[in-house]
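dumping this here before i forget
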Amino acid sequence: MGSMGWVIMEYRRDKKARKNQEVLKQQSEKTAKREEIEKMLGQIFVTDKKYRLPVCLDSRALKIQNHDEINLYHIVLENDNEQNNYGIYANGLLVESISLYDATHWT
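structure:
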C-alpha cells in the first residue's frame, strides 16, 4: 500500500515530508496563505520569528504517490521549556524542530 507525500523539488535530495510538516516563512509569505493556514492548523504558529507554513500549502511542493516506506525523523533540541522548538535547516530547507512536549505526547 502506498502513501501520499510531498516533495519540494528545489530541495529534492529525496526530502519528502508529511502533509502537515511545516516550513518556516517570512511574514509576507504567511499573509497570502493566512486563511488556508488557519483552516488547517486552527491558528498561526511562529518558530524563531518565522511563520509556519504546512508543506502542503507551499507553492513549491508537489504531491507524490510513494510505494516505498519512508522513515521520518524528528529532532528535539534541549531547552528548559519543553514546549519550545527551533528553526533548523534540513537539506537546505528551513523547517521546524519538534518540541520535547510534542515528541512525547503526539508521535
